[in-house]
Every structure is written in structure tokens, then in C-alpha cells.
Design brief:
Layout: H1 12-27, E1 31-36, H2 43-54, E2 60-64, H3 71-75, E3 81-82, E4 86-90, E5 93-97, H4 100-106, E6 110-113, H5 129-138, E7 142-148, H6 156-163, H7 173-178, E8 181-184, H8 189-197, H9 204-212, H10 217-245, E9 258-261, H11 268-282, E10 286-292, H12 294-297, H13 301-316, E11 320-325, H14 329-339, E12 344-348, H15 360-367, E13 372-376, H16 396-416, H17 425-443, H18 445-462, H19 476-523, H20 528-543, E14 546-552, E15 558-560, H21 571-580, E16 584-585, E17 596-602, E18 607-614, H22 624-689, H23 697-728, E19 736-738, H24 740-750, E20 759-763, E21 771-773, H25 775-792, E22 798-806, E23 809-816, H26 848-858, E24 863-867, E25 873-880
Parallel strand pairs: 1-7, 1-8, 2-3, 2-6, 6-7, 9-10, 9-12, 10-11, 12-13, 20-22
Antiparallel strand pairs: 4-5, 14-15, 14-18, 16-17, 17-18, 19-21, 22-23, 23-25, 24-25
Helix pairs in contact: 11-13, 14-15, 16-17, 16-18, 17-18, 17-19, 18-19, 19-20, 19-22, 20-22, 22-23, 23-26, 24-25, 25-26
């Protein structure tokens, strides 16, 4: 316990690490996040207000700010430098994004970048806006930004479950936690709903829709609680970091966290349950620790197992558990409470062993006066659970150790007997103490006590006059014997304590070395079998257990990755652990009778497999340090599996991209080479058909067939060229506002030959709005759909073209009453070189629908296929409706009228 005014010697490694961290932070800019529960609470307004206050002393640049049409927010932009946005063409549209290059070139002191979770338009330097901000920070530029609670990755699914809306744009929690400042912008739900009704959050139409869905009062209250709790967690981390930085060892009772001390006594489980009830009532986090002192290390296996069971119970009830090592239970508990800023300590009430001793609670109070103590009443002896017999089994090694202690003392006496008269008695006594010290170092506390007693007896018998008798001629020798006995016992005790601490340090070093070696082994693996081998070897060396790795297949069913299987392995339990993301089997609450422990490998993105571990002893998992190390092994293996998975995904994607690029190049080259001879062939066929004198009927039919096949081949070549141009991005949309009736009519005229023998119907309302699209390309879409309908339906079938407005989209559908699509192929028909009927005599190579999807996607729409309930197929594509330009004023008035 530190005393005011004392010099506290700090860890030099910690000081060096802190200096290096401060240097790193000094080179980076500072990030401030304005954090809120939902849109409309005033994050952007608060950010702009703070920036205006700083603008007089610092260079402030508005990188990107979304005002959403709020007049009071737009007013705050007056007088601030606003960075022009970068214009990026995407799918025929021009979108604006934050210009990071211009911001880096200007190098202001502070940049305002709204909406931290925003996804950038493809073609930007980074896919996410938070990555742009990270680059600004790395350049030494400070950044103010905003984010809502639903955009935090760890809370995304929680918010989705509450509101029914799961947002697609998220921010890693590490970005949020790494921010230098987090400012909570809070607003009660009623006030936020009032702002929504006044149009201060969204425009009227959008506000009405939001009020029916996301902006319900219950949703807003729950989101507000999540935001407050997440901010409190962040502030708690800041408090802990500040305490470590300033080496503050007193407890700040800023929260209701507390510590439960678990011991080997009969009331350990009572302390745990009382602490769990208190934590539930207070809604507090709590820890449970067991302090293993040299004296407690000598407990029999039954008592130690009971203590570890109490710790397991605490972990099951939600506590953070740990096994500490130290000479004193009180000092170890006080130090743990200070280091984790735990303001309360709960422990069982007990009486001291000796009347003059203080109770354990009083000793902790003296060591930590700034910590509150809660004493839990212990059960009466009749109600206490039976304890294992408190006896320690004597082994042959124990007897041998005490025998060595006796022989060492007697041997020293015999060796020193010839020196009588040459060595002073004080020197002889020192040599006996040396024997005690050596026995304590090599054999422990018990043999050192034996060596002390035998050494005192030998010193009296062989060297103190009268010699060779235990009689004492001078009373002063009693003092010497007492001092010698006390010094021997104290020396043996201290030496044994140091031996215990060295043993604990060796175990910690062994665990750290095992983790390091396992991480190093996983760093270079590229295959799942290598991960299985490294995991099996590491767990086998560390825990003496057999291990099998199970990984999922494409259907999500786990199977052994490789190596020898465990005889008792149950894949059903492993599948349950994989599906639930929870451990099962031995030592758990799920199928504890299984001799195998199943541990899911949970990676950042998803569960990657299951570790099946068969241990020699059933209680090896009850020790918290064992379980924590095993969980660390599992986390490293899960991350390695996820890395290998994404390496395979990247390799497959690269192969597909290169294959697609090669195929497009070949198609483009082949199409260009075919276009010239096809044009020549078509001209010759037309010349042959119109030659004089006229051809005979049979020759004329052959010339017409040649012309038709040439036209079909030309259309195929055109499709190949169009597909290659679309995928290479060379197609530029010529967007114009025009009615959809015109393009439907032109497509029907172009497809007249393909629809011969079919009944064609149209349903196009006269009041459809104008749509902005490329008429030539949309006509190609309709022509391909109509030709498909004519090709795959029998003569006499009805083909219908319909258009209707649906919200902010125009839906155009081509339906028929033919045989329909093959079941399960509704999505596959849009793939390149996929045909409705395999090995069909119908002409075509399966590019028409792929071209349709590419063209519609370039317009920002979607296309889908489905079978109609009454029979036939339906192809529907959508085009976005915008706001057409206002018509020119009608200047038809005549001055004469």
C-alpha cells in the first residue's frame, strides 16, 4: 500500500511502452466522435457548433457534412471553408464523395467528416469513410465525425432485433474505441419525435414513413439506452487507462463493480451466490478470485477441486474469474481490486485462528481503506456441505525428503565435530543455518522445519558443553537455541515462499511460451490440415490432451479436418456447439457426461469450426487459468482458419476475374474478326436474292435462308460485343427523360418476326411519368425479353408487355403463358452462356438475359424472373423514378386576343 509522499518505483518496461505510445499518438491526429442514438438528435449540429468555436484559433475545413435540408444546420456552415466534393461516375450516374486527396493537399488543422459509417462509391480510394478518416489521422490532421449506435458492428444485430431494420453500413468497434474523444449527443424520445413531426429530421414524406417504422417511441427509448451504456463502457475504459497512465493505485468508486473472494472453506459457494444476487440487483459487473498462497498450495486434491468448482459456478453466473498467487490472501485481493478499480470486496465472515489475530476483513480494510467491504454470513456447521477430509496423504517422496533433512543435519554435525576448538560456536551455528537454507530451497517448507529442529538438537548434543548430552551448563545457551530455532524456521519459511513464487513464475512463463510458439506456428499456415496439426501439437504439449479439429462443409455440417479421430467423439454434440457458438461436453452444463470437451472456434466474422478435446483428468478445465489459455488457443486457431478461408476466397476470385477477362478478350477479338465477313456475306445474300434474271423458287428460298442465318449470326456477334463492352465499362449511358410507351412500341416492332404466330398484348397506363433512361439500351432489353418469349413458347401463346408505377420505381414486365422456367433456375438464367433448354435446337448462346441484367443494373434497377401461378414465365425489370425537369412555359398567348 502506497503512502503519500513515498516515491513509487514504476515498471521501466511500462514507462517505455507509454513513452512509445505517446510518441505514436503525437504523430497522429486526434479523433472526436459525436455519438447518438439515432438520426435527428443533433450530432452534426453539435459538431459544427464546436468547429465554429475553434475556427478563430485553428484552420477548420468542412470535408463533407450532410445537412439533410435542415435550415438551422445549414446556417452553421456560413463562414467555414467547405471542400468541394469529388465527382465519381457510377452506373451512368455522377455521385459526389469526400475528396481525401484535396483535404491532404490543403493540410488543415481540423477536418469535419460527417457519417463515419458511410460506404464510398466504388472507384474511391477506400471502400469505407472511416478508412479515409484513418488516413487523415495518420497524416497528423485532427478529425471531427458523427455516428449512430446502430452502426457499431457489435450492436448491429441487437439494434436490428429491436427495430426490425438492420443497417448495412457498420463501423468496427475498434475504430470507436480508438477515438481520442467520444461526445454523447442525447435527446429524449418525446423531443426527438416532436422534431420529426416539425420536419427537423427528414423531409415530410420521408418523416411520415420513418414515424411508422424506425422512429417509434419504444425503439428510440431502447436505442437511447444502448447509446448511454456504450458511452459508459467507453468512459470506463478511459478511466482505467488514465489510472494506469498516472500509476494511481487507489480505488475510484465510479461504478458498482465488486470483487468476491473465494476460499477453500465450506461457505465458498454461498459467497458466490450472494455476490451473483447482488450483481443482478445492481446490474453490476463482478469478479471472483481465489488466492493460492504457499499454505493453500498444500491443500489436498479434494479441497482444491471444491474451490475450483466454486470458481466455475461464479463464471457460470457471469463473473470474471481468476486464480491469483501470493504470500497473503489479503494483499493479493486488495491489489486486484485496485488494478481493476473494484470499489467493493465481498468475502465470507470468519473468525481468526488465534485470539490476537485480526479478522481477514479487518486486514483487508487496513491494506485498502478506500474499498468497501461486504461480509457474507457463513452457513451453520449443520447446514454446511460436507467437506473432504482435511488430511494430506503422506507419500514415499515426503518421507524421503524428511529423511534427507535429518541426514543433512546429522551429517553436518559429524563433519564439524573435528573442528571443535578451532571454530567458534557462533560459526558452527551459522553452518547449521546454511543446511536449513539448502534444505528449504531444494525440498520445501516441511523438510526445512525438520532440518531446523534436528540442527538445534545436534548443535546442543555435539558442540555445546557438556558435550554428548542434552544438558545445558549455561542458561544463555537457551537464548542461542531459541534464536537459532527461530532464525531457522523463518529462513525456511521465506525460502519456501520464494521457491513457490519461482514455481508460479515458471508456470506463467511456460503458458506465455506456449502461446507464443502456437501463434508463431499459425502465422505461416496456408491450409486447414496445417492448422489441425499445429493445434493438436500445441494443446497436447500444454494440457496433455488429445485434440481433433472439426470444420464445416458448404452445407454447414462439421466433419473431422484430418488426423486421428477420438474414439469418444460425438459429431452431434460438435454440431450443436458449432450451431450455438457455445461449449459443450465435459465440464459444461450441456451434456457434461461426455468425456470430450467441445469448444467452438468463434472468429470475428463467424464460427469457423469446433475443437474436440479429450483430457486425461475430468477437472482440468475447472482451473480458470487453464480455461483462459485454452480459450486463447481457440481464438488463435479460429483467426487462422478465417485467414485461410479468405485466402482461398481471394484466390478463387482472382482466378474467376482472370478467366472472365480472358474470355471477354477472346469474345471481343472473335466478334471483331467476324463482323466484316458477316457484313460482306449479308450484302452478297441480298444481292443474290435481287439478281436478274430472278432466281428459281428453290434458289430464292436458299438465298433467303442464307440472309436470315446471316442476320441471326450478326445479332449474336452484336450480343458478344455488347457484353464485352458492358463488362469493361466502355458503355456510356445516354440518359434522357422520355415516356416508356415509345420504347415499348419500338421493341415490339423490332421483335415482330420473333413474335409471329403469337398473340401480343400491352397494358401501359396513359398517366405514367417520364423516366430517365437510354432508349437504345432499354429497347435492347425489351427486344431480348420478347424474343425469348417468342422462342420458348409455342405458337398461339399470349405475350404481354405491362408497365406500372410502384413507389419510386417503374416496373416493366414481359409475361407469357408458355411452359415457364425450369424449377430452381429463376436466378441462373441471367448468368452468361446459360440457356433455358440445354442442348436445344433453338438458336442462341445464352447471352441475351445476361445483357439485360447488365443494362438494367447500369441504370440502377433490378431484373428478376419467376414462374406465374397460372403457368408461364414473367420477367420484370425496374427503373428508378426521379424528378423530371419542369416543362417550358406555354407561351401561346396572342397579343391580338
Amino acid at each position: 500500500m502506497s503512502v503519500p509522499g513515498d516515491e513509487v518505483r514504476r515498471d521501466p518496461d511500462a514507462l517505455l511502452a507509454r513513452v512509445q505510445e505517446e510518441e505514436r499518438r503525437a504523430a497522429r491526429g486526434r479523433l472526436r466522435i459525436y455519438f447518438g442514438a439515432s438520426a435527428g438528435v443533433g450530432k452534426t449540429y453539435a459538431m459544427l457548433s464546436a468547429a465554429r468555436q475553434l475556427a478563430a484559433a485553428r484552420t477548420v475545413l468542412v470535408g463533407v457534412v450532410e445537412t439533410h435540408g435542415r435550415a438551422e444546420t445549414e446556417t452553421l456552415l456560413d463562414g467555414l471553408q467547405v471542400l468541394p466534393r469529388r465527382q465519381i461516375a457510377y452506373r451512368g450516374k455522377v455521385l459526389s464523395e469526400f475528396d481525401i486527396d484535396a483535404a491532404l493537399e490543403r493540410r488543415p488543422e481540423l477536418v469535419l467528416v460527417d457519417e463515419l459509417a458511410h460506404s464510398n462509391v466504388p472507384g474511391s480510394r477506400h471502400p469505407k469513410r472511416w478508412q479515409d478518416i484513418d488516413e487523415l489521422l495518420a497524416a497528423g490532421i485532427d478529425v471531427f465525425t458523427t455516428v449512430n449506435v446502430q452502426h457499431l458492428e457489435s450492436l448491429n444485430d441487437v439494434v436490428g432485433g429491436i427495430t426490425g431494420v438492420r443497417v448495412g453500413e457498420t463501423v468496427p468497434d475498434s475504430v470507436f474505441d480508438a477515438a481520442d474523444e467520444v461526445v454523447l449527443v442525447d435527446l429524449p424520445a418525446d423531443e426527438l419525435l416532436a422534431r420529426l413531426k416539425l420536419g427537423k429530421v427528414y423531409q415530410p414524406v420521408q418523416a411520415e414513413r420513418a414515424g411508422r417504422n424506425f422512429f417509434r417511441k419504444g425503439n428510440l427509448i431502447a436505442l437511447r439506452e444502448l447509446a448511454l451504456r456504450r458511452t459508459a463502457e467507453r468512459i470506463g475504459d478511459d478511466v482505467r487507462a488514465y489510472r494506469v497512465e498516472q500509476s494511481i493505485d487507489t480505488v475510484w468508486r465510479t461504478g458498482t463493480t465488486f470483487l468476491a473472494c473465494v476460499g477453500p472453506g465450506p461457505g465458498a459457494e454461498g459467497v458466490v451466490r450472494s455476490a451473483a444476487r447482488l450483481a443482478a440487483q445492481l446490474g453490476a459487473d463482478w469478479h471472483a478470485v481465489y488466492v493460492e498462497t504457499p499454505a493453500l498450495q498444500r491443500l489436498d486434491a479434494g479441497r482444491r477441486a471444491r474451490t475450483l468448482d466454486a470458481l466455475k459456478l461464479a463464471r457460470d453466473l457471469g463473473a470474471v474469474t481468476a486464480v491469483l498467487s501470493g504470500d497473503s490472501v489479503e494483499s493479493a485481493a486488495a491489489d486486484y481490486a485496485r488494478s481493476h478499480n473494484l470499489g467493493r470486496i465481498a468475502l465470507g465472515r470468519g473468525d481468526p485462528r488465534w485470539p490476537w489475530q485480526a479478522t481477514r476483513a479487518r486486514r483487508i480494510a487496513r491494506l485498502a481503506p478506500d474499498v468497501e467491504l461486504l461480509e457474507v454470513a457463513m452457513p451453520p456447521a449443520s447446514a454446511a456441505p460436507p467437506m473432504p477430509a482435511a488430511r494430506r496423504t503422506t507419500t514415499h517422496m515426503d518421507i524421503a525428503a524428511h529423511g534427507v533433512a535429518v541426514l543433512s543435519s546429522v551429517g553436518m554435525a559429524l563433519a564439524l565435530t573435528p573442528t571443535v576448538g578451532h571454530l567458534d560456536l557462533a560459526n558452527i551455528a551459522m553452518l547449521f543455518l546454511l543446511v536449513v537454507l539448502m534444505v528449504a530451497v531444494r525440498l520445501g517448507r516441511g523438510p526445512s522445519v525438520t532440518a531446523t529442529c534436528i540442527s538445534v538438537a545436534c548443535f546442543d548434543f555435539f558442540f555445546v558443553p557438556p558435550r554428548f548430552t542434552f544438558a545445558i551448563s549455561d542458561v544463555q545457551y537457551l537464548v542461542a537455541f531459541g534464536v537459532m530455532l527461530a532464525v531457522g524456521l523463518i529462513t525456511g519459511h521465506l525460502t519456501a515462499g520464494l521457491r513457490f513464487q519461482a514455481h508460479v513464475a515458471a508456470r506463467r512463463e511456460s503458458r506465455t511460451r506456449a502461446l507464443y510458439e502456437f501463434a508463431r506456428a499459425l502465422s505461416g499456415v496456408l491450409q486447414t490440415d496445417q492448422i489441425q496439426e499445429a493445434t493438436r501439437d500445441a494443446i497436447g504439449r500444454t494440457f496433455g490432451a488429445r485434440t481433433v479439429l472439426l470444420v464445416p462443409d458448404a452445407a454447414g455440417r462439421v466433419a473431422v479436418a484430418g488426423g486421428d479421430a477420438i474414439a469418444a467423439l460425438d459429431t452431434g454434440i460438435a454440431q450443436w456447439a458449432f450451431d450455438q457458438g457455445a461449449s459443450a461436453g465435459m465440464g459444461t452444463d450441456t451434456l457434461p457426461g461426455s468425456p470430450v470437451f467441445y469448444l467452438p472456434l468463434v472468429a470475428p466474422m463467424r464460427t469457423r469450426g469446433v475443437l474436440a478435446i479429450e483430457a486425461a483428468t475430468p477437472h482440468w478445465l475447472t482451473a480458470p487459468e487453464q480455461r483462459q489459455q485454452l480459450d486463447t488457443f481457440a481464438a488463435l486457431a479460429a483467426i487462422a482458419l478465417e485467414r485461410v478461408h479468405y485466402i482461398e476466397v481471394a484466390q478463387d476470385a482472382l482466378v474467376r476475374i482472370e478467366s472472365e477477362r480472358l474470355r471477354n478478350s477472346l469474345l471481343a477479338a472473335l466478334s471483331h474478326d467476324l463482323r466484316t465477313p458477316l457484313t460482306s456475306l449479308m450484302a452478297q445474300a441480298e444481292a443474290l436474292a435481287g439478281s436478274t434474271p430472278p432466281l428459281a423458287a428453290r434458289q430464292r428460298a436458299m438465298a433467303d435462308a442464307l440472309r436470315e442465318e446471316t442476320v441471326r449470326m450478326g445479332r449474336l456477334v452484336t450480343n458478344l460485343l455488347d457484353m464485352a463492352r458492358i463488362e469493361s465499362g466502355d458503355v456510356k449511358l445516354r440518359l434522357q427523360w422520355q415516356p416508356v410507351e415509345e420504347v415499348i412500341g419500338s421493341a415490339l416492332a423490332a421483335s415482330r418476326a420473333a413474335l409471329a404466330g403469337h398473340v401480343v398484348a400491352t397494358r401501359v397506363p396513359a398517366d405514367l411519368p417520364l423516366v430517365q433512361y437510354d432508349a437504345v439500351l432499354v429497347e435492347r432489353v425489351l427486344s431480348n425479353l420478347l424474343e425469348n418469349a417468342g422462342k420458348y413458347t409455342p405458337p398461339g401463346s399470349t405475350v404481354t408487355v405491362a408497365a406500372e408505377q410502384h413507389g419510386q420505381w417503374l416496373n416493366v414486365a414481359v409475361t407469357d403463358d408458355g411452359p415457364g422456367l425450369p424449377p430452381g433456375q429463376e436466378e441462373a438464367v441471367f448468368e452468361k452462356f446459360t440457356r433455358g433448354e440445354r442442348e436445344s435446337a433453338k438458336p442462341g448462346v445464352g447471352l441475351g438475359l445476361a445483357i439485360c441484367r447488365a443494362i438494367v443494373g447500369a441504370h440502377g434497377g433490378t431484373i428478376r424472373a419467376a414462374n406465374r401461378p397460372g403457368g408461364g414465365a414473367a420477367f420484370t425489370f425496374t427503373l428508378p423514378l426521379g424528378t423530371p425537369p419542369a416543362p417550358p412555359p406555354d407561351d401561346m398567348e396572342n397579343d391580338d386576343e
